[in-house]
Amino acid sequence: MAQPEAQRWNDRCLQTMFEFFQQGAARGGNAPRVVLAGAQDSPAQFHNAAWDSYCTGYAFIQLAHMNISGRYPKAKQFVSSELLAGLRPFENRINLIRCSVPCMNLAGADPDSTRPPHLVIEARKNSPLNVRQVTELLSRFGYVEVRKLRPPRTALIACDNHGNAKRILRELRHHPQYRIGPYVAWKHSPLVRPLLLGALTVSGALLLWQLLHVASPPGAPPVPA
């Protein structure tokens, strides 16, 4: 289920997730209350092993609640066993962000790919495209990976889910600097385009030779090419 814009976090680092759930925007009134006895919540403690462990557990509990709470009335309170049972579909799976499949299954076959098709971005002006600037522009749409193509005015965009890909296409449709659209291999691939052009050239030459051969009657002098 898609979440409202105010209930999303822009990246997946531990501090961002912890602060997101601390604000309570996505937890609801019946979310588990996690209290750390004898310590103060302080972002200055991040990258301390003990503090990071606490934040990881905190985010895990809140994610478990977010995963299961939408299936029941808002007033329902969950016990720990119910939260863990709701996470059973993710058991023995390792999340992958730069692969064609969303996760690696340690206890069976990997799932089918659910990644959205790649996008391509092109600079409207005749100048090289800056990958860092493009990555910064797209960072508000979630996780993206940008790789430069040939010609240098274009780059390939890989999004982590279909929702973010649709948002990029919708909100940047009329961007003054860039043109963004679906990636088409025969049109944008630096490998496929030369192969396709070569195949068309060879096919055209063979067809022309065949036509000239058929047009020449037996015993007639060859038709000059």
Produce the secondary structure layout.
Blueprint: H1 14-23, H2 49-69, H3 80-86, E1 93-95, E2 103-105, E3 119-123, H4 131-138, E4 144-148, E5 154-159, H5 162-171, E6 178-182, H6 185-188, H7 192-215
Antiparallel strand pairs: 1-2, 3-5, 3-6, 4-5
Task: State the main characteristics.
alpha+beta, 225 residues, single chain, two-stranded antiparallel ribbon, Alpha-Beta Plaits
Write a concise synopsis of the structure shown.
By secondary structure, this protein is of the alpha+beta class.
Structural class: alpha+beta
First CA to last CA: what distance?
A: 65 Å
Counting DSSP E segments of at least 2 residues, the number of strands comes to 6
Overall body shape: elongated
What strand order characterises the main sheet?
4-5-3-6
Give the integer mean of the pLDDT values: 80
Helix and strand run: HHHEEEHEEHEHH
State which percent range the strand residues make up: 5-15%
Uncertain parts: none
Helix content: 25-40%
Task: Characterise the protein shown here.
The protein has 225 residues and is of the alpha+beta class. Among the domains are: 87 residues, no CATH class; 70 residues, Alpha-Beta Plaits, CATH 3.30.70.330. It is 37% helix and 12% strand. The chain has 7 helices and 6 strands, in the order αααβββαββαβαα. It has a 4-stranded antiparallel sheet. Strands 1-2 form a two-stranded antiparallel ribbon. Helix 1 crosses helix 2 and helix 2 packs across helix 3. The longest helix has 24 residues. It is elongated, with a radius of gyration of 27 Å.
